[in-house]
Amino acid sequence: MSGNAPAMFGPIHILFLLILFPAGFCIGKKISRLSYSDLCRAIFRAGILLACMEIWKQIHVYTVTEGGRFSWWWFPFQLCSMPMYLCLLLPLVKRKNTVFAFLSTYALIAAVCALLYPQDMLRSDPALTLHGFLWHGIILAISFSVILSSSFSVTREDLLRAAGLFLFLCGISVILNIYGYYQTPAGGIYPNLFYISPMLPSRQPVFSIIAEHWGIIPADIVYILSLILASALTAVLQKRCLKSSQASPDPD
């Protein structure tokens, strides 16, 4: 059932990239044509799909990977886990545009970065590797469906609320990281939810260097601020691209 882990930028990784990015865009574009209410229903169903995949993953990890032991490392509270929760909660949320702003920026960035640099997804277990890539491919489709939809427009206020939501989730992840760190037996793998554990240096490119020279917490702060800035720039770029495409005349 297991073998050698696929190599970063090896044939399997490249194949997934060539399939998932075009497929995510095409599926997202098709979903984006739905009416506002139908779009919300489609996103909710995507959340159900992600939840089913996460349940399978947790069972597989507990029974196969960890041999019947619970590990905080696999706790489903990473940035790429948030679309599952937000999609499931969408019918109950009054300010849906805040969720849409999060899905079109933070979720998109998380999925793209994970697919381009899948350090934690390329595993010797083919089932977990496939799960990781499909999971982030689905997030791409969700993000593109929101970005390309003409049913609504994300405002600056929505982006500010999305940033507040992101910071709130970061706060929860820090609490879970600290709790999980002290609950993990010696020799176990400590949790690093959102990659901002105050106990563990970052393994992310660039931020690992900051952690090495200036400390873990400064690196975590820079990481969080960088994601907020990147999300704002992503939103601006999306608006400009959409305006440009709408202004371009259709070919005869």
Q: Give the termini distance in whole angstroms.
A: 54 Å
> What overall form do the CA principal axes indicate?
globular
Q: Low-confidence parts, pLDDT < 50 over ≥5 residues?
A: none
What would you call the structural class? mainly alpha
- Helix share bin: 55-70%
**How much is the radius of gyration in Å?**
19 Å
Portion in strands = under 5%
Detailed description of the structure:
This protein is mainly α. The chain has one domain. The protein is built from 9 helices and no strands. Helix 5 packs antiparallel against helix 6 (126-148). The protein is globular and about 55 Å long. It starts with 10 loop residues before the first helix and ends in a 5-residue tail after the last helix. The model has no long low-confidence stretch (mean pLDDT 93).
Question: What does the secondary structure layout of this molecule look like, with pairings?
Answer:
Elements: H1 11-32, H2 36-65, H3 82-89, H4 96-104, H5 106-116, H6 126-148, H7 156-183, H8 207-214, H9 216-247
Helix pairs in contact: 1-6, 2-3, 2-6, 4-5, 4-6, 4-7, 5-6, 7-9, 8-9
Identify the notable features of this structure and list them briefly.
0% strand, mainly alpha, 252 residues
How would you summarize what this structure contains?
This protein is an all-alpha fold.
